[in-house]
Amino acid sequence: MSDKRIETKSLADINEKIQEIYTYLPKELFRDDKAPRTKDGKPNKGMILTAAVSHLLDLQSQVDVFNREEIELMVRLEELQKQEKQKFGKNIVDTSQINFENTSAEIALGAIGVGPLAGQLAASPGPSPFNNTSNEAVGGIDPLSLPSETFP
To answer: GO molecular function, one example (predicted)?
Structure first.
């Protein structure tokens, strides 16, 4: 294969992947009527790549916010467990299935081989209360059914 044909094929592959990226991006990222477009009215490659980077950064920011909230909730849950044990002499809500060591994002990324848990979870992620898709409550107890004095 000549260098020219290899380069043309490579460029075609790149263009195809950029168009694929475009299909995954929210269309509201391209609502700017003043932005230059291709002949068929679609955003040009530069716009697509810029929007993709911006969207990924926004998604990462959202993940960071959710991680902070999740950590705050886990700390609060541990505090409530201590109060519960002091008040009732035992824990009423079973939280033994909750992984207090890692956030759900770390667990999910580890399951696909990314992040600090990649080596540990990629081979065998196992069940996680964070990806429970059933309607069952974690630990088998529905916190809404407990007496209101259980939770201050």
So the answer is: protein dimerization activity
